[in-house]
Design brief:
Shape: elongated
Strand order of the largest sheet: 1-5-6-11-10-9-7-8
Structural class: alpha+beta
Length: 416
């Protein structure tokens, strides 16, 4: 159907855009407070960037990417997430040249071929931040705090912060081996996806929505028994930083996130009223990603938040801002000469930053007055032959019905 948008996409209508702009404005103010600068990356990238960055065997790469060949026979993918793109931009544009910590944020569309559901479409929007170039766990804490303060600043209730560590290339292989051994014995009980993960990515079994409630999951190995000293100390320091800031958190040993590039810190902020799709923000440390894409060995940490889910949460709590789109004045005219005079008045008001409208349908003055009342304007500015001849305007207060004749030049001051 040509009149229907593709499944999993949605028009953001004029009545809804105001909420998006309000939310984006809050994001930009908060990021400025924390010293993060906005970056805008291409909507599509070379497919290999996501294959190497996100990891083969992940659901995103194996099942969800929008990938196609362009006219040059190059494999191109609509970005399913923005961290890999931000890292590519960091390397290509040598943002590391001045050394130190590079702090970026983005707002944009992402694309995943998934089953459409409330708060998650095939084209969805994310706000995310990336801090590149520092291994100090205080940066992990800052990233988590930024995400927490953003959501709490929206006055959302029922938020919970879950944190975990997923180890590093030194200690994670030990954990992977233990998981593989354990889940191999339970293979007959695993869902089809988890049987495939058993060989490629056994950590992803831990947060499987199908197998998550089964009894054997409770006895699965815990990563804390496998951590190297560096990962153990990093996680302990992170918890201290968060405790000092008063941010409440729970350690969830089964939180692993869905992308391969995470190391050490992983976290998720959940909004319980959304049900099964309760995660509204999540992220962690990805110290190996920059090297994997082709740069130097560089530590980094970040998060992303789904804007559709956040707006849905705000709607559920009925805390979206009230809309006030009323215009200041509606210009009503009678006759062709008056129409030109009215258009000049309309233009002058707008040039003085006064919102104004008129009806272009050449309707009767009575019909135009009805349109003025329906528009919500406070004033109707009425011009006819007499007004044109005398360079005046009849101004009517639509709230009190009081009206008077004033000069053309007086109109802006009367409306303000």
């Amino acid at each position: 159907m040509l009149t229907n948008a593709p499944r999993g996409t949605k028009d953001i209508l004029p009545s809804q855009v105001e909420n998006w702009l309000w939310l984006e404005n809050k994001i930009r103010k908060l990021c400025a407070l924390y010293g993060y600068e906005e970056i805008r990356t291409p909507t599509f990238e070379h497919t290999e960037l996501f294959q190497r960055g996100i990891g083969e065997g992940t659901d995103v790469v194996d099942k969800e990417m929008y990938t196609f060949k362009d006219r040059g026979d190059r494999s191109i993918t609509l970005r399913p997430e923005n961290t890999a793109s931000a890292v590519r931009a960091y390397l290509q544009n040598k943002l590391y040249a001045n050394a130190g910590l590079v702090k970026l944020f983005y707002i944009g569309s992402m694309f995943r071929y998934d089953r459409p559901q409330a708060g998650r479409l095939r084209e969805f929007h994310q706000f995310g931040v990336e801090a590149l170039g520092e291994k100090n766990p205080a940066v992990d804490a800052e990233i988590i705090l930024l995400a927490w303060e953003f959501l709490k600043g929206l006055e959302l209730d029922d938020l919970t912060l879950k944190i975990n560590t997923v180890g590093c290339p030194e200690c994670r292989p030990i954990f992977r081996r233990k998981l593989t051994e354990y889940f191999t014995e339970e293979a007959d009980e695993l869902c089809g996806d988890c049987r495939r993960r058993l060989e490629k990515n056994p950590l992803r079994i831990l947060d499987c929505k199908v197998d998550g409630g089964k009894d054997f999951m409770d006895d699965a190995p815990k990563i804390e028994t496998c951590l190297c000293d560096d990962c153990r100390e990093h996680f302990a320091a992170l918890k201290k930083f968060l405790t000092e800031t008063g941010v409440p958190f729970d350690v969830n040993p089964r939180l692993v996130r869905g992308l391969d590039y995470y190391t050490k810190t992983a976290f998720e902020i959940q909004y319980a009223p959304l049900g099964a799709q309760s995660a509204v923000a999540g992220g962690g440390r990805y110290d190996g990603l920059i090297k994997e894409i082709g740069g130097e060995d560089t530590p980094a940490v970040g998060f992303a938040a789904g804007l559709e889910r956040i707006l849905l949460a705000l709607e559920l709590q009925k805390i979206l801002p009230s809309s006030d789109k009323k215009i200041a004045a509606f210009v009503v005219s009678g006759g062709s000469a008056a129409e030109v005079y009215a258009f000049k008045l309309l233009t002058d008001l707008r040039r003085k930053n006064i919102s104004a409208a008129m009806d272009f349908g050449k309707k009767s003055m009575k019909a135009q007055m009805k349109a003025a009342a329906k528009s919500g304007a406070k004033f109707a500015l009425i011009v006819g032959e007499d007004e044109v001849a005398n360079s005046t305007v009849t101004i009517k207060n639509l709230e009190t019905a009081a009206q008077e004749v004033i000069s053309f030049a007086e109109v802006p001051d009367k409306i303000i």
